[in-house]
Amino acid sequence: MEHLGNSTIKEELGRSTWKLFHTMLARYPEEPKPDERSALGQFIHLLSRLYPCGECAEHFQLLLQEYPPQTSSRAAASQWGCAIHNLVNERLRKPVFDCNSIEVQYPCGCAEP
Ligand code: FAD
């Protein structure tokens, strides 16, 4: 994947992707079936391969090797997602997010279809 030189696009892409990422994990089943667990694991690995910022993708792939996606439940997946975003934050010297408030920042909205 090519280097994404434009830092504004890289940041906008990052914010949008994180929004999708955490919202998806907030709505992931509390008790996922095996195929749902497999789908989430595959999605995250494919995201790390196809993410359209080469340097980000490379680093994310290394993080996933060390911290594989946790797919056993909504809580496990959301906390894992928060922790992996924090590892990216640390690398970029951004503030670390308090993962205790993940459900407030990304409510599941589960009553809605
Ligand atoms: P972002 O990090 O985009 O976060 C958006 C919002 O999410 C924050 O304002 C906050 O409200 C919330 N948030 C922050 N931390 C957490 C958390 N731990 N859990 C839940 N919510 C949180 N950029 C690079 O320059 N180099 C890279 O190597 C790089 N790798 C990336 C890898 C991935 C997979 C992704 C999705 C993005 C990557 N980025 C990278 C982009 C970078 O992470 C930021 O998205 C971008 O710099 C914009 O930062 P931001 O300060 O607006 O906040």
UniProtKB/TrEMBL annotation:
Keywords: Disulfide bond, FAD, Flavoprotein, Oxidoreductase
Gene Ontology BP terms: regulation of protein folding in endoplasmic reticulum
Reaction catalysis annotation: 2 R'C(R)SH + O2 = R'C(R)S-S(R)CR' + H2O2
Keyword Flavoprotein annotated: yes
UniProt entry tagged with the keyword Transmembrane: no
ERV/ALR sulfhydryl oxidase domain span: 6-106
Protein name: Sulfhydryl oxidase
Cofactor(s) recorded in Swiss-Prot or TrEMBL: FAD
GO cellular component, one term: endoplasmic reticulum membrane
One GO molecular-function entry: flavin-dependent sulfhydryl oxidase activity
Pfam families per record: Evr1_Alr
Entry EC number(s): 1.8.3.2
Top-rank taxon, per record: Eukaryota
Group of enzyme by EC: oxidoreductase
PROSITE patterns: ERV_ALR (PS51324)
